[in-house]
Task: inverse folding
């Protein structure tokens, strides 16, 4: 069976706000999901994707900033260092960009797609992408980082996205492009 993309869930979908559950073991089904998530991320023009964004409430993420694909299970940040502010977009919040303050450098532990433990040190854009996706696993989204004034400016767009999320077809084109779609 050919691997196909999954449907990206849009802001307003309840699965995006649920805390994702730990994966007990890396199975063939889990590996298939990670592969389909990667296809979805690439087709959407993103650099990262978390399982809740495709309606799966499990701790799975994929990230590729152009230096190679990471497929991670149960990722945990164990150390943070420094700060950076990056304008972020999100495949689940199309057309909205938010300045987000994150750690500049992180260390994380996870399982890879083969179920082996990995330790990863990341900085700059890669650190940003991992933090963004791990936020999704906790039910947190970039709009949660917006300052009150910015939330007021994007309120109508968020309401439109909520209406769109109720339309399961999701056939509308994405709105403006952000510098980073994570």
Result:
């Amino acid at each position: 069976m050919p691997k196909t993309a999954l449907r990206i869930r849009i802001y307003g979908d309840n699965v995006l706000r649920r805390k994702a559950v730990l994966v007990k073991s890396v199975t063939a089904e889990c590996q298939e999901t990670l592969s389909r998530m990667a296809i979805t991320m690439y087709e959407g023009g993103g650099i990262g994707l978390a399982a809740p964004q495709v309606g799966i409430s499990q701790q799975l993420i994929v990230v590729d900033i152009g230096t190679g694909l990471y497929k991670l299970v149960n990722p945990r940040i164990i150390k943070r260092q420094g700060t950076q502010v990056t304008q972020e977009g999100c495949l689940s919040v199309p057309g909205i960009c938010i300045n987000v303050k994150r750690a500049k450098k992180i260390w994380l532990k996870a399982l890879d797609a083969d179920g082996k433990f990995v330790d990863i040190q990341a900085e700059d854009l890669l650190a940003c992408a991992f933090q963004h996706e791990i936020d999704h696993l906790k039910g947190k989204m970039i709009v949660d980082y917006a300052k009150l004034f910015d939330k007021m400016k994007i309120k109508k767009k968020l309401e439109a996205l909520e209406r769109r999320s109720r339309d399961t077809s999701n056939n509308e084109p994405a709105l403006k492009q952000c510098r980073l779609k994570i």
